[in-house]
């Protein structure tokens, strides 16, 4: 089957982003993709809570969600909105991923669990938790013929999430993202390939790329990685476009049989060597 990742350079208003997104998704569907993933914050890429409040609405009745559901139905595909900001009653927002079925109905949704609170050298601090509330549950979605594990951007640094998703049946991992340029250059490919290798899964990563209206610069380089960790399709720059690849789920079974890391995982405790030494010392003094 054929899957596709969309690479965007989203601005701060939903309507022009939707127009660009619809064109790219239609192109992917015309190339035969039956599952299409868009980047993180596809509809509104605002920089702070004030900007989000101007554009991000509530989940129910959200016009962007309505439009993308209609697009999925018109094209007859699974359309995965990597994420959008959803206004919550608390005054904060959820960074929410939404999966539409070929009939346009929502079949799964996931709120980003790991929020990016970090200070990068030479760049101002990022504190997603100032604007967003963290999700509490991992999500897998059976799509037939594959099972999708849902994640968003910073989640990719937390391997335990993907092990959980794989053990719950996921064999394709979705990573919509808006990686910064410094972290993208250093870690993007390595992390995506690691998540594929350790779970024996396909990884599809749809990225934001380029210089944005809000002043941010994102890395791009959307890609699809096979269960052996090989990049089978990539957009090797930060420009808008489509990445398409054919996947074979037999490759998942083959990778997991060759390196049965999921099956070999064991639970274990932790021994603090300093504590052991102290106990031995006390025993010797008794």
UniProtKB/TrEMBL annotation:
Pfam families noted in UniProt: CN_hydrolase
CN hydrolase domain: residues covered: 1-249
InterPro entries linked to this entry: C-N_Hydrolase (IPR003010), C-N_Hydrolase_sf (IPR036526), Nit1/2_C-N_Hydrolase (IPR045254)
Coiled coil: none
Keywords linked to the UniProt accession: Hydrolase
GO molecular function: hydrolase activity
Domain of life: Bacteria
PANTHER family: DEAMINATED GLUTATHIONE AMIDASE (PTHR23088:SF27), NITRILASE-RELATED (PTHR23088)
Name of this protein: Carbon-nitrogen hydrolase family protein
Organism encoding this protein: Devosia algicola
Lineage, opening ranks: Bacteria, Pseudomonadati, Pseudomonadota, Alphaproteobacteria, Hyphomicrobiales
